[in-house]
Amino acid sequence: MLDKLLSMTIDLISHEKTTAGAIAARLELSVRTVYRYLDVLSAAGIPVYTQKGRGGGIMVGSEFRLPATFLTREELDMTIAALSEQKDLNAAVSARDKLLTMKKRRPADVTQYYNESFVVENSDANSNAALADKINTIVESKRNRRTLRICYHSYSGEKTTRDIDPYYLVYHDGSWYVNAFCHLRKQMRLFKIARITHLTYTGGVFLPVSKQKTYTFDLEPRPQQTDLVMTVTPEGRYEAEDWLGVENVKPAEDGVNFLAAGSVPVNEETFAKIVKFGKNAKVISPASVRDAVKKMCLSCLEVNG
C-alpha cells in the first residue's frame, strides 16, 4: 500500500488536475481503490481537492510541497529497496526511479548537521555548544518531521511545556529563533532558542505544509538606538569589524588607529561589548555610553577588587 500511496502523491503533484479514472489507469488500480487511497491521503493531512462538473477533477492544493526530506535517509533506502522488489508494477518502478533521483540530489550526511544552507558546529565554548546542540536537535526534528516537546521560559518568567512542529530557523539581532506550530496555542509561534530547555521527542510526527513566514519580534521592548563612535587600536580592529561591519571601521587621521562607528542599542550588552575591548577601544561619543562603560568597569572593580 505504501508504494501506491507514494506513487499517487507524486502523481497528483505532477498533474495540475487529473481524474480518478486517469489515476487508476496510470497506477493500475480500480477507481474505487483510488478514492479510498485519496481518503487516506486526506486523513494524513495532504490537501486533496475534488472539483465536480465539466472541467472538474482531482488536484492537490498549491500550498503542498513534497520536500527532499520527506523521508529520512534510512526510510528512503528502505522504501527504494521495497519498491525494487515490485518490478512487475509500473507504478512501483516509476516511484522508485523518482526516489532515486531525490536521493542523488540530497546532500551527503556530515558530522555537523547540514541543511543545504548552513552548518551548526558545536565545539565552541560551553554556552555556545549548548545553543548549537539545541539548534541541531530542532533542525533534525524538522528534517525528520518529528514533533518536539520543549520547556519554554517566557520573558515574563512563565515556564510552560509545549509540543511544537519546527518549520524555520530565524536569526535576528544576534539571537536564534525557531518558527514552529505550537500545539498549545494551535498556531505558528516564534520561540527564542536560548529560552528553550529540555528538548525531547514526543514520538509524534507531522506532515510539512507550506506556512506563511510571518515573524513578529515583539517579544520584548526594543532598546533605544544610538550612534556610537570609537577609536580602536590595530589589535581591536577586527573585533570592531565583526561587531559593527567592515565598512564601518576606517583608518583614523593618525594613520595608526581606526575609527569605528555604527548604530547600536543602548543596553547592558552593548556596554559589555565595549568593556571587552579593554585598552583597545575608546568611546568618543555619545558621552552617555562612555559614562555607562565607566560605571560598569567601576562596578566590576568594586565586586572583584
UniProtKB/TrEMBL annotation:
Domain Helix-turn-helix type, chain residue ranges per copy: 14-55
Signal sequence extent: none
UniProt domain WYL: residue ranges: 135-200
Pfam family, one: WYL
Protein name: YafY family transcriptional regulator
Natural source organism: Candidatus Caccalectryoclostridium excrementigallinarum
